From TrEMBL:
Signal peptide feature range: 1-20
Coiled coil residues, start to end: none
Key word Repeat present: no
Name recorded for this polypeptide: GDSL esterase/lipase
InterPro entries (alphabetical): GDSL, GDSL_Est/Lipase, SGNH_hydro_sf, SGNH_plant_lipase-like
Keyword Lipid metabolism annotated: yes
Amino acid sequence: MRPVVCLVMVLSMDVLGAAAGVFKPPPAMYVLGDSTLDVGNNNYLPGANVPRANRRYYGIDFPGGVSTGRFSNGYNTADFIAKCIGFVSSPPSYLSLVAPASSGGLLNAGSTIPLSKQVQYFNATRSKMIVAAAAGSSNAVDTLINRSFFLLLFGGNDVFAFANAEQARNRSGAADLQSDAAAFYGSLVSNYSAAIRGLYALGARRLAIVNVGLAGCLPVARVLDATGACAEDRNRLAAGFNAALRSLLDDLASSSSGLPGLAYSLADSLGLMADTFADPLASGFTDVADACCGGGRLGAEAACTPNATLCADRGQYYFWDNIHPTERAAALRAQAFYDGPAQYTTPINFKQLVHMS
């Protein structure tokens, strides 16, 4: 099993011009998350064992057919959300913008970039923006950040690692699992809370957050079952974390949290995947179990490499490799979260968050 690389993408971006009286997109989009949203940070992480997407067949449907570091055959969810908002292009990967020596020196070989480190990267970016501002004033920078759009997606790696650890320890008793899961949720939610409060202190006010999807229905999880069925214990674990995350966000947005002006939209990746998998043809998919690019059973026993088996019709597969969605699945996810059916976002959708005054 190859781990999933975390990322941060931060950069103020040019936006589409708008005539007087016409909606103008936020001045910037900042993305913090895992490899589902990565546009190339994995290219810069040291170590021979770091999972990378800079090889064939990754990017086969990207303009020019080039691999960019996206774990997709083309664009990913962050790209499509940026397009929905109105940005000309997606934010570049953070590590592509800084020299290795200035990235903090904390990236060990084979490591990921934890959420706390990504917040530090954003703080460094904010500091550079202030220095570049007229007279080094933070006022204009704070105003820009206040109006910016922050996209966050975390938890999937943690759920997968925790489930693997429980399986390795043979923790099958209901009481043991419940106790372990409660401690796991507590730790993860505490980290999420600290990150959100940290971003708020740095000026973030509009947070679009995606919960954990059906972790047990990824090809890499299905292949563990002799019949290829979803691992329902992993799905329940994801659902439990999602409930804890929703409760956290409700608390942080309350008047007693000490975070006035904080607004959020929570996207339900798990619910959307469940509905899609229950009736795949309704969304145009003929395969929601196998990896399009991989090898072995379910295409999940081997990585997506230049020697991998490639499916004939990538648009009909939900999964690109044994973890990540195809470009088409990513586009449908982005549209559902931006202004799709109300059941996939709470308390507002991403579009309403963007249009808040």
